[in-house]
Structure formats: structure tokens, C-alpha cells
Amino acid sequence: MKKLIVYILLFISFFSCAQAVEYPVSDVRVGILTSENPASFKAIFSGTLFVDEEALLFHDAEVVIAANNGELDVIFPEKKLKVNTVRIFPKKDFNLETQFTKRTYTGELRIHAAGKYLHMVLHVPVEQYVRDTTISELGNITYHPQHYLALETAVRSYLFASIDKHKEDGYDVCDLTHCMHFAGNQKVNYNFPDDKYVLLNNDGSYLQAFFHSTCGGNLSSPSVMWPKYKKTTGFRSDKDSISTNEEQIDRNDLCYDSPHYRWSTIFKLNEIKKILNTTNVAELKVNTKENRVTSLTYGNQEISASQFLSRTGKLYGWNRIKSNDFIIKKEKDMFHFYGRGLGHGTGLCQYGSYKLAAEKNFHAEQILKFYYPGSKIKKIQNTTGANKNEK
Ligand SMILES: [Zn+2]
Ligand SMILES: [Zn+2]
Q1: Handedness of CA 289, 177, 306, 355 (dihedral sign)
Q2: Closest CA to 303 of 330, 331, 273, 333
Q3: Buried (b) or exposed (e) across 165-198, using 16+ Cβ within 10 A?
């Protein structure tokens, strides 16, 4: 009898785990080349080109599309059209070239002119977007299936939780790290895992599963970087370590081998004045929460960390101050910044996750439990509602 009850419980729990997860969309609308903002591009493709409502069939075509006073010039080798909208329905992938970028995309591209520039929205099947974004976000980290699976779950969950982030722009997500880095179709030959998961909050909504490159040993809550983020569960705020050995503290950090584990940079007084838009900076002090910088004080003024990082990035490049975890030492007219990690330190630490997978034999589910404690991990049984991405 006892055995029977155990079987019944197992049966029930299997089916509650297997419960279908609804995809909020079947195609993701990605605003592409949103930082370059090109005025024209060349498409190389086979398939259908809709110029306004007229369908034109092409094989290995090269077509230039350019913004012209709120309209589009569509330039073929032998003719030129003036239209309002263009849609490219490629048979499979297509290539796109601008002055600065060359990429391959999968999906349907819709274009119209926004003044002098092009507004380009790519409609990509969800799982294609998730895969391409995960590979883009992997960066230089060696492929490991369990780290990949954990990161892919974070990407999918983050996407589902942020689907209306760019409502006013006419797409779901942009292709920059503002949302997630998406560089089109990534041609790689990995043996991808079959499992698919998504992370949920306790109320069943999707977890906005933040992730980053390197926490430098200091994982923190989302509210440190984004004060308006009220939720307190779902993210690990602690050391990035599974070791209980109190010696060699740094070496215990899972992301110790990351090239971004520690960094330093020097700013001249004039640069700091320009960042703060002030003529007098005697001292620059950091205010912290969970050991990360939330704001900086100079004289009787204060600037939020996100504003300081954004101004510094725009003026002097995004690689000078790599994270919001640093101290400042002033020597004469020089400000020495000594920092830890790359990114905001919230959610999954990629270098840490890789180490858990590659050296500690953690399965993706264990990695996700470690970085997103208190969140629910749902296995997706099928991708109905999303265009299933074939291998
Ligand atoms: Zn965005
Ligand atoms: Zn870490």
C-alpha cells in the first residue's frame, strides 16, 4: 500500500513538473542595429521581397535599401523603387551589410524609414533568438553544455519577463546589452542539450533572470544596481563560492580565473571633472550597499552609480570601469579605481557557472538553484506556441 502511495505521489509530481509553460510570444520582434542606426544597408538573400504590398521573388539577390526623407529607396541592379515599407521573407538565412556591420540573420525583416534612418525589426522564432543570444552572450567562455543550459535558461526567462520593454519602439527587445546582446545567427557546431527550462517567481510570473560576466566574488541583489527593483527573493546575495575553507578566500571564488576578476584604472582630475560636470572635485567617495557602489559623493553633491557609470562610459569608453564594485584612492591629481568583476554582479555569474559545470560537475538545474535561490525551475516539455527550432 505504502509503495502504491509513493507511486501515486511520484506520478502527480511528474505531471505537475511536466505542466506546459506558455510562451508569451511565438516570434520575438528584435530591433536590430539599434546602436549603429544605419541610413542604408545591402541585403543578400533568396526569397520574397515585399515592397509595400507587391511581392517580388528573388534568387541570390543583392538589394540596397536606403532611408530617403521618411520613405525608402529600394535599389536593384537594374531599377529603383520608392516605397513606404519593405519586408524581406528569406527562404532561410540572409546576409545583411551596412557601412560598419556584416551579419547573418534568420527570420523576417520589416523595414521602414524613421526620418534619415532605418527602423529595422527582425521577427525571429523564440528558440532561435534564445540560442543565438545565448551564444553571443557566452563571449569568450569555452562551451560547456551545462553552463550553456543554465545561461540559456536565464536568457529565455529574462526575455519572457521583459517582452514589453520596448513597446514604444515597435519591437520587443533591442539587440544591445540594454536588453541582451544579439548579433544574428551564430554558426557554431556545438552539441546542444535537448532540455529546456524557464525560471519562475513564486507567483508563477517569469523571473527577470539577470546574468553577467564576472561577479568578482560578490553577488548582489538587483536593488543594488536598480533601486526601483523591489523584489528581494530569487537572487543570490553572497560570495560566489561553494567552499567552506576560510583560507585562500579569493581562490575559493568560482570566477577567480576570469580575466575580469580584478581590474584597475586611473582617471585624471580633468576627466573626473568632465564626468561630474563640475569645476571642483577635492574628493570622490563611494557609498555602498552589499559591498557594491550605489552612489558617489563629492563635496556636498551625490551622483548615483548608474549615472556615473553611464557618463563615464559615454565619455571614456565602457571598458574603463568594468563593474559597480570598486574603491577609489586619490593620489595628487590622479584617481585610482580598484575594482572587482565585470558587470552588475546580479544573478548568474558566467565564469562561476562555467566552473561549477566544468570542474564541480554541477548540472544546469543545480547551477540555477545556486544563482537564483527561491526561484522555481520549470522544465519545458514542448515548445508549442513557439516555432520549434530544429537542430
Ligand atoms: Zn533594450
Ligand atoms: Zn563570480
Answers
A1: positive
A2: 273
A3: bbeeeebbbbbeeebbbbbbbbeeeeebeeebbb
**CB atoms < 10 A from the CB of 245, how many?**
9
Residue 298: the pLDDT is: 94
Which ligand has an atom closest to residue 158 CA?
Answer: 1
Report the C-alpha gap between 309 and 318 in whole angstroms. 8
State the helix-helix crossing angle for 145-161 and 126-138, rounded to 10 degrees.
Answer: 120
Query: Which pLDDT tens digit goes with each residue over 337-354?
Result: 999 999 999 999 999 999
Is there a contact between 43 and 96 (Cβ–Cβ < 8 Å)? yes
Centroid of ligand 2 to alpha carbon of 176 (angstroms): 22
The answer to whether the beta carbons of residues 348 and 154 sit under 8 Å apart is yes
Q: How far is the CA of 174 from the centre of ligand 1 (A)?
A: 4
**Ligand 1 midpoint to CA 309 (Å):** 17
Handedness of CA 108, 110, 116, 117 (dihedral sign): negative
Spatial contact of 139 and 47, defined as CB atoms under 8 Å apart: no
Give the largest Cα separation in the chain, rounded: 81
| Residues, the chain | 391
In tens, the pLDDT along 282-320 reads 899 999 999 999 999 998 999 999 999 999 999 999 889
Domain boundaries defined on the chain: 27-125, 197-256+344-379, 262-340
Asked if 309 and 325 count as a contact pair (C-beta separation under 8 A), the reply is no
Q: Are the C-beta atoms of 119 and 110 separated by less than 8 Å?
A: no
Q: How far is the CA of 51 from the centre of ligand 2 (A)?
A: 49
Sheet holding 292-298, edge to edge: 285-289, 292-298, 301-304
| Rounded distance from Cα 249 to ligand 1 centre (Å) | 37
